Amino acid sequence: MENSGKYALVTGATSGIGLELAKLFAKDGYNLVIAARDNEELEITANVLRTEGVEVVTIVKDLFDREEAFSLYAEIKQQGIEIEILVNNAGQGVYGKFEQTDIDRELMIIDLNVASLVILTKCFLQDMIDRNSGKILNLASVASKLPGPWQSVYHGTKAFVLSFTEAVREELKDTDITITALMPGATDTDFFAKADMLESKAVQDEGALSDPADVAKDGYDALMAGKDKVVSGFKNKLQMAISAVTPDSMVAHQMNEQQKPIELGE
Fold it and tell me: Which PANTHER family does the UniProt record give (predicted)?
């Protein structure tokens, strides 16, 4: 694919869904700015992506710190790079009953999943509006529609992401800019290890995890088509349809059964 000359920014691009999205952009000739916390992982990822003949700029940022979201935008502007597509992929969770989890870690997750996403969206959207061109993909989750015992803060942040994305989309309806929410279910990434969630029934259920490449393709296609949101995977679409007509208290109970530690479910 011939280099388009346009740039896409992908946060959390060194693994999982973010990496698979970056690969799709590269294959379609988009230059990339990729941001993550680990410089070595960024460089390894960049070398893989460059095989598609695109330019890849790496920027080390820790988006658990909301100030680094502002500095990411500033550094990209300083380099004279115009971002045509923003992908807010970086996100994390923490597993456990809320009264037992670490509040400082949860506040950092709120900063990553919510504050940094809002900052990057605000900064790059203002540039997109100036030229009336651009696309944004926000990683929400099926968790955005489901109360999440054992992951209460994570589910809460994703509910914010979906609501925020849909609200901004309405504000942009008279422009040529689109904003899309990608809503995957449980996916085979390092999310669960980082969340200390490997003992959850949701993870232990063999065959239950989606392929991140499939999720990325669903999100990429929806983004490029300018859709408002996409639920990735038939099983997740079915779960969304059922939960929409089920009382929230019952959905919360069902999610508790799905997400509690395996030894509690035996």
Answer: ALCOHOL DEHYDROGENASE
2 found inside a domain: no
For 239-258, the DSSP string reads HHHHHHTS-HHHHHHHHHHH
Task: Tell whether 1 is covered by a domain.
Answer: no
Instruction: Give Dmax (Cα) for the chain.
Output: 57
Residue 84 within any structural domain of the chain: yes
Residue 90 in domain: yes
Q: Which residues contact 225 (CB under 8 A, 6 or more apart)?
A: none
Instruction: Name the domain count of the chain.
Output: 1
pLDDT score, position 266: 43
What value, to the nearest 5°, has the Cα angle with vertex 61 and ends 73 and 41? 130
pLDDT averaged per 10 residues in sequence order, the chain, 266 residues:
85 94 97 96 97 97 97 98 97 92 96 98 98 97 86 94 98 98 76 55 58 93 95 70 72 72 59
Place of tokens 């460089």: 43
Helices (H), the chain: 16-27, 39-50, 66-78, 103-110, 117-131, 152-171, 191-194, 201-204, 212-225, 234-244, 248-259, 262-265
Separation CA 203–CA 210 (nearest Å): 11
Catalytic residue numbers read 154
Contacts of 249 (CB under 8 A, 6+ apart): none
Range of the domain at 97: 7-265
